């Protein structure tokens, strides 16, 4: 063998760095003496018969002795070491006499202490081929090893390396164990290690805290007995027996049997605390196998669910307050759904218990009304595909409550595994549905009513959007509700003044006025639709919501086209007839006037009375015709007024003068009572007409020798003129009709008293046209008192006059 | 100067008669009665009236047309004309006055008062 170092020969690359790192891996340098190693050095010295034996390890600069026999120093510089030569070879390196060896004759270790003359070293070679150092023997005299000694040295060196390996492994194990312990100790979850037979082998501090057992109370006990409630085990055993078609004992097997399904098994349990309380946990059980795959025990990790349980309890309490059913719905692709969570409300809604749907949605689907089932099912699929919010109303066949309406809303939370978790709420809306149905019924009724009406009805909302046209109004306007702004209603819907040609201004449209809060009464206008011209009379009202805010407006139109036509014909007839009557009447009364006025000479006495009668009646006929014409003009709005502001008193005096003759003929006296300086704004001719009517009426109904009193008095801003007679008064039954056309207390009155029956109606119209009002007071025993009031013009003038001072 | 001669145009013979009687017997005027506008226009120059009374509604040539015809006679420029009408619509009096009539007498009139009424019209026109 070649003793000279020749590294390149066996290690093409410099082997030193990897050898050093291998050495360091064993973590043995500078460690204390160990008997195990000393045994080997003693044995080596004994076998080789040398005073010195060493286990020498070489690092970068020195050789360090892990074990030494017969030597005090524990290390020497590497440069002068014999071992550095040994580790460069594969076998024993032997120097029989150092003094004669050129490599060592001047070595301080040879020349000085320990005075080496003989050296033999076997390299300590690791399994991966690194020479960490040597097992060597040294003598202070030259000598040689026998073959058996050399052989023994090599074997011993291998044992030393084995010891290194063991030591390293033990260290690694200790580290792993410490790490495990640290993990277990600091784990928040309770960890239990079970033996194969189910007895507890270990628990971590979290388990100790969670279940309350000291190690000595728990270790060695069957876990099923110590922590699991008997009834829970029995329940599970029964379920598992059914699942695996095999009897499962209600003991530890309950935890291990499910492992046949997969490498681990997780389930919620309510375990027992040492003190007897319940501990809700999520228990994860997995088997422990050794390297050879043999089952060594089981690991159980328990997550404390107390907090979750409290949360769940709170959720339950909250859910109980929610009217309806809170739920989590888990949808797996492929038509499979379950309700991992359903609040107690499920009983109210579906008549089910949460457990019944925890793993399967079918019980709920079966409760859905058969008619709605396809719709509900389709909606679930669609929502799951689109991952969108879900909203559906459907009927439920509740086992106790019968058919109820429910509304379901849910929002999806996509899960990592492709399934979808829906959080939602199902509420009972039967009440609302019933109200809705009732409302629908009412609306339908309203709609039918509207269509059955012979009136046109239109309505709009508070914003002026047209919302309703019934059949008739659609027909009249030739169109229905359209988005037309109120300003254009008149134009779009053809709304005209009664003259049929002037478009209504937008603020004259009844619906518009009603929308502004006005109550519109009996407004007449014209609806034109092409050639069709329709006169209507409209009433409109604002619509109010229950809270009092205005919700819109409605207008009801009544077709008065026919009435208008008849009125017009009537008016034309009256006008024509009146005119045609007047012409002959003019000549009759004119002739009689001339005769009775003795223009044609004296009248024979026997003719006098008859001619007078004829003359008086021709006058009455003229008056009747004049009244008819006046009335006609008044109602047609064609009578003109020539207003002048003037003193009232002279007007009254003139009226008395004008009617003096009439009163005298009836042997009735006039008296002017009261006196005012009031000014009034009137048409004097029309005022005279009214006064004449009232005075002649009073005279007619006065007893012979009676007195008619004409008075005026101030009443605040008004001046009142009264005509009081001493007649029979006005019968109560007649009060309502006093101012109506052709009204006289008794139809025979007209003949008895003369008059047309139009006087009071005309007077009322005239007074009202002049801004006044008319009425009467009556006590049947005291006669009648007709009065009218006119606004005082002097009041305004004097006020403004004072203001100017 | 005094009102003496009155031309009266009226198609209705009865009214014509009553009017003429009233004017002649009560007022003492000299009256020429015509039954139509053309007749009046034909005779007016010869009669030379101091005042003319015109019915409004007449067949053929009505009152206003007759008035227009009369206005073409220069000799009649100062002769007052009064219409007599039974049909009094609003504005009709103003309308008739606008045509150049002095006054409008409403039918039926009181024949006992007619002469006085006519005299007033004539006097007003003289002012």
What report would you give on this structure?
- The complex is a heterodimer of chains A (805) and B (127).
- By secondary structure, chain A is α+β, with helices and mostly antiparallel strands.
- Chain A folds into 6 domains: 7-172, GAF domain (Beta-Lactamase, 2-Layer Sandwich), CATH 3.30.450.40; 187-304, 2-Layer Sandwich (Beta-Lactamase), CATH 3.30.450; 309-434, PAS domain (Beta-Lactamase), CATH 3.30.450; 453-559, Beta-Lactamase, CATH 3.30.450; 566-634, Helix Hairpins (Orthogonal Bundle), CATH 1.10.287; 640-796, Histidine kinase-like ATPase, C-terminal domain (Heat Shock Protein 90, 2-Layer Sandwich), CATH 3.30.565.10.
- In chain A, 41% of the residues lie in helices and 26% in strands.
- Chain A is built from 28 helices and 29 strands.
- A 6-stranded antiparallel beta sheet of chain A has the order 3-2-1-6-5-4. In chain A, strands 18-17-22-21-20-19 form a 6-stranded antiparallel beta sheet. In chain A, strands 8-7-11-10-9 form a 5-stranded antiparallel beta sheet.
- In chain A, strand 26 (707-715) and strand 27 (718-724) form a beta hairpin.
- Chain A starts with 6 loop residues before the first helix and ends with a helix.
- In chain B, helix 1 (13-27) crosses helix 5 (111-126) and helix 2 (37-47) packs parallel to helix 3.
- Chain B has a 5-stranded parallel beta sheet with strand order 2-1-3-4-5, sandwiched between helices.
- The longest helix of chain B has 16 residues, at 111-126.
- Chain B is 45% helix and 19% strand.
- Chain B has one domain (5-126): 3-Layer(aba) Sandwich (Rossmann fold).
- In chain B, helix 4 (92-98) links the parallel strand 4 and strand 5.
- Chain B is of the alpha/beta class and 127 residues long.
- Chain B is globular.
